[in-house]
Write the structure tokens for this entry.
Amino acid sequence: MNNAAYSNIVRFVILVLVQVLICNHINFLGYINPYPYILFILLFPVKNNRMLIIFLSFLIGLTVDLFQDSGGIHAAASVFIAYARPLILKFSFGMMYEHQTIKFDNVEFGSKFTYISILTLVHHFVLFSLEIFNASKIILVLQKTLFSSIFTILLCILATIIFSRKK
């Protein structure tokens, strides 16, 4: 195994532990619950196999589902954003994605913020739509999506700033 594989394994384990041990116990005002485990999907290397990221997204979502006893909604939302990820990467980074030259530590903040925000909003919308699963409660789905997304985006941006390896 190479160094990138080890760092992805460590990232997977740490993000699952942070989600399960800390973030699952945060439920502020009934709407705000952060899900920083999606950072694994967001920061997974672009050049890797697409089926691998979809499988690993399913695995991380399923792991969170097992700890939350949530019946697969995290796995479904994670697989959805892993599948939609190339489209959002192309939208956020443009030609850098076309040439497969994206290094998340070196991209400009606006592109990184757009990428993290879109995928987080999509993930949370799918997650809460599956959790509530009632079309008449669309306002509740949107509320939970908005408030949890804001907190998750802030956590993800903060984590990427703190743990970036700029040279």
Remarks:
- The chain has a mean pLDDT of 88.
- The chain has one domain: 3-162.
- The chain is about 70% helix and 0% strand.
